Every structure is written in structure tokens, then in C-alpha cells.
Amino acid sequence: MTMAKKNFETALSRLEEITRELEDGDIELDTSLKKFDEGMKLIQFCNAKLDESQKKIDILLHKNGKLESIPFDPETDINQET
Fold first, then answer.
1. Would 16 be classed as within a structural domain?
2. How far is CA 1 from the centre of its chain?
3. For residue 15, what are the contacts with CB-CB under 8 A and spacing of at least 6?
4. Residue 63: CB partners within 8 Å, gap ≥ 6?
5. For a pLDDT cut of 70, what percent of the chain falls above it?
6. CB atoms closer than 10 angstroms to residue 79
7. Is the distance from CB of 11 to CB of 43 less than 8 angstroms?
8. Number of structural domains, the chain?
């Protein structure tokens, strides 16, 4: 799975698959370590997506006290007036 084509749902699905494979314990140590590393990268990706979504929600809820959709810019402080 390439990073460009990955979205939260596919990343989470792959993470669940890796978890099952690791829990089964039927794979070699080297393969387990590679899957663990892939899983950690997927966790970081999913956490970043969740953080981004939370910030978008915060922007929607804090924009002049009314719900208004504005694009999320991680470089911009959410409390800053636009």
C-alpha cells in the first residue's frame, strides 16, 4: 500500500490485518518485525488523520461562534481570526 493511495479506512483495515497476523504467531521473527514496523507507521498515519480531523472540527465549532466550514491549514493557529 503506497502512502499516496492510503486513506484512514484502508490504513486501519491493514493495521487490523497485521494485528491478527502478529497475534497468530505463525510467522518468522524477521517477518514479525517488518510487520510490526509497518503497523507502527500505520498507527502514526491514522493518528495524524485523526488529529487533522479533530482540528477541522475545532475550526468548524470556533469560527465566530457559528458553524462555518473553512479549509484546515496546519500552519495556521485555529484561534487566529481570518
1. yes
2. 15
3. 39, 42, 43, 46
4. 70
5. 70
6. 8
7. no
8. 1
Which grid coordinates are listed for 40? 507502527
Check residues 33 and 72 and name the one with the higher pLDDT: 33
Indicate which CATH number applies to the domain containing 19. 1.10.287
- Residue 38: CB partners within 8 Å, gap ≥ 6? 14, 18
Nearest CA among 2, 25, 26 for reference residue 14: 2
- Please say if the pLDDT value at position 76 is more than 50: yes
Taking alpha carbons only, the member of 26, 35, 52, 51 closest to residue 1 is 35
Half-sphere exposure of 36 toward its Cβ, with a 13 Å CA cutoff? Answer: 10
Range 13-21 average pLDDT: 96
pTM of the full predicted structure? Answer: 0.65
- E strand or H helix at 44: helix 29-62
Grid cell in block for residue 64:
465566530
pLDDT at 75: 66
